[in-house]
Amino acid sequence: MLSLLFASAAFALPEISISKRDAHMQKSLMARGVYKRDSSVETNVYNIAPWSAGGAYYANVTVGTPPQDQVVILDTGSSDLYFDASTASSCSGGERGSCRGGTFDHSKSNSYKVVAQSPAFNTSFGDGTTAYGPFGEDVVGIGDLRIKNVQFGLAETVNSTTGYAVGLMGVGYGFNEATDHSYPNIPEVLTLSGAINSRLYSVYLNDDDSTGSILFGGIDKSKYTGDLVTINLLPDARTGTVFQFITTVTDLSATVGGKTSSLFSGGTNTIQAYGNDDQSLPVLLDTGSAAWELPSSYYSRLFKPAFPYIRKDFTCPCSVRNRDDSVTLTIGGAVKITVKARDFITPYYDPETNQAVPDTVDSGDTLCLSMIQPGQSLGTGFMVLGDAILRSMYVVFDLDQGQVSIAQAKLNSTDKPNIVEVPSGPGGVAKAASAKQPSSSQTWSIEPAVQDQTASFSASTAQSTIGTATGTAAVPADAQISGEASSSGSGSSASAERIDWIVFSVSALVGVFVLGGVGSL
């Protein structure tokens, strides 16, 4: 789960909560609180029943005037914002592959504009999923923030290979957008509108049963333990430019049955990591992926022998989640992250019934799945490191500086939030975190922000916050899985208790903090 925050002198930090849906894996329905500090609002995040076999974190947003509810994947591994069109043929019916995150009917919005006709938006993903249609422009709502003139793709044709089709909010570098004519995406729009100081956000997924957040423009010191260490991202091996969130795993050890063994070590966090002579594993930090993919040789020679209870098909009895086993990764040669087995071994659920699948090998147990698996290289020089590992990490993605700052996540923290705005410019995260030493600067070129000289972005507070329903009622009707029972009527407001923070009992998939007072749309 993630919450999204925005920090600037003009706005309160906006935070969007997101929820996790892993088909065949996640099931629990967790309604969580929403926090308000001064004029900042964070809507809650929670787990809900599975949609997608690939697994992802989801957020509630709106689009159009009047607003139409949407659910989108929050994805650090891509860059486009897109919604499924109500006219898409695959969005009709409830069969696998249909659009379960809501659809956008542009004919019912009086502020929608066509930017480029279909198939100007044309995207595909590694799992074979494709989507295409026109580019449009409209008012997009995130938490209590409404932003005018936001461009997005409208998927009039959708083919989902892994589960129900859902829209997407990509928060990566704009260079990776699915168009020849780049446009300001969400991190850039938030910066251009004055909602945040720079293209920066912090991701805190938390464990798979609890709340999490993505905070735009700031960090939350209550969400991690130890030092927040800043690491330079690796550039693309061919161009020498940073435009993806690629770093390295330089060391890996496993603790099983109380015994710790080193699986590999001695790598570097330099461009040499792409070469065969370096022990490092270049990885893409991707919230849109569920698993950590290891090269097949590393998996079979190193990881699999360390965890003998994980079978050839990556399954195991769920009882092993109660063991105190773990893996420890060193990221970028600088920060150690320990991941408990219960966080990378996930219950397996039948997507049709939402029931736990019995383990036919160990009678009386249920079936679990290891989310550390062998992957197939796509010729990119790196593998994907997804939610199975990211849940144990607090990560600050700083697009402007070409860096990430990482610490061990404080899972299920009950500490009072301690949100600090990050100033723009080099060393901003170190200053906000009160680091003992300043961080080094990125030496490779960094993909600049997309500038749109024709668009004017303005952010305003809305008359009501997205996600004032509880339980599954927070999910648009089109997105609710058959058999799910709502725990509250849609749109029902919850009580608020004021201390220093106001806690709202809402269950939006995405919450937003906005700093400062602004007008209303």
TrEMBL record:
UniProt KW keywords: Aspartyl protease, Disulfide bond, Hydrolase, Protease, Signal
The family this protein is said to belong to: Belongs to the peptidase A1 family.
Pfam families in alphabetical order: Asp (PF00026)
Organism the protein comes from: Piedraia hortae CBS 480.64
Active site: 75, 286
Disulfide bond sites: 318-368
This protein's name: Acid protease
UniProt-recorded Gene Ontology molecular function terms: aspartic-type endopeptidase activity
Top-level taxonomy: Eukaryota, Fungi, Dikarya, Ascomycota, Pezizomycotina
Peptidase A1 domain mapped to chain residues: 57-407
Domain of life: Eukaryota
Any one Gene Ontology BP term: proteolysis
